[in-house]
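Course assignment 3, question 2. Fill in each field.
Student: A.L.
Task: Predict the tertiary structure for the chain below.
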Amino acid sequence: MSSTHLKVNFKDTISEVLELEAKVILERKEYLSTQINECVNFILKCKGRVIITGIGKSGLVGKKIAATLASTGTPSFFLHPAEGLHGDLGMVTDNDVVIAISNSGETEEILKTIPSIKRIGAKIVALVGNSNSSLAERADLTLSYGIVEEACPLGLAPTTSTTLTLVIGDALAISLLKARDFKPENFAVFHPGGSLGRKLLLTVEDIISTTNRNPVANENSNVNEVLFQMTEFGLGAINIVDSSGKLKGILTDGDIRRGLAKEINILQEKVNKLYNENPITIKAELLAAEALKIMEDNKVNVLPVLNDYQEPVAMIHIQDVVKMGI
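Answer field:
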C-alpha cells in the first residue's frame, strides 16, 4: 500500500459507488417493500421490544437501526451477540422480536444465540443477503435483500450490503412510526435535549421559573418612579396594572423616549399618558417557540405573561427565549 501527496481526482470512483448502491436499492424496491410490510405487521403483534443483533459492520448498522426505532416510538436496543452468549441474553423476553443481521446468514456468534432465543420464546427475524442461509432457515421471518455486488472493487468490504441493511432499517422504523401514529410531540419526549425537543416541550412557564421577573407599576404612578423600576428589571418595559392588579397595558423605554421628545416635563406625568393599552399578552402554558414567533411576527421584544384573572405574573424578553436554545 503506497501513499502520495499528489492531488488525485476520485470523482469517477465516487460516482460509480453512488450509482451502484442507488441502482441496487431501486432494483430491490418492489420485493423488499413486500417483505418489509410483512415484517412491520410481525413487529406490531409483538408486545415487547425489538432487539437488534449483529457483529462487525452489520453490528454497527444494527446499532443505528436500534437507535432509530427507539427514537420513533418502537422500544428497541442493540444486543451484541458475543455479549449475549455470556449473559446478556437475559435481557431478552418471550414478548420480544430479535432482528438478527448477517449478510451471509452464517455468522457463528449469531447462530450460537438462536437456541437460547428460541428457548426464551422470542421471535426471530433474519435480515440477510442469503435467503438459503442457516440463519434464514432458523428464523420465524426472513428479510432477504439477495446477493449484491459490493461497491468495494475487491468485493471484500461490506458496502452495498450495509447500505441496503440501513435502508431496510429506516423503512421499518418509518412504517412503524406511521402505524403507531407517532407525532412530533412524541418524538420530542424522546429528544428533550435536542433543539426539536426544546421547541416542542419547553413552555413559557419553564422560562419564567428561571428568569423570575415581573416588573409591575400602578396606573397612577409617575413616569420617573416607573423608570427606576424598569431599570432595575432590565427588560426595557413594565406591566401597568389597575388597583385590582389586572393588566391595563405596558410601558416601554421607547414610549418614554417618544414622550420626552414631545414634552420636556413628561417624567412628572402619570404613566397613563404614555403606556400602550393594547399590548400583546400570552399565557404561561404556551410553548416557548410560539412565544418567540409572536414576538418576531409583531416586532416586539417583551411579552406580559397573564394568569386566568388577567393579572401579570411575569414578563419575558426575546433574549430569554433565545438563551434557552429555541
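Instructor remarks: The two ends are 50 Å apart (CA to CA). The chain is about 45% helix and 15% strand.
Grade: pending
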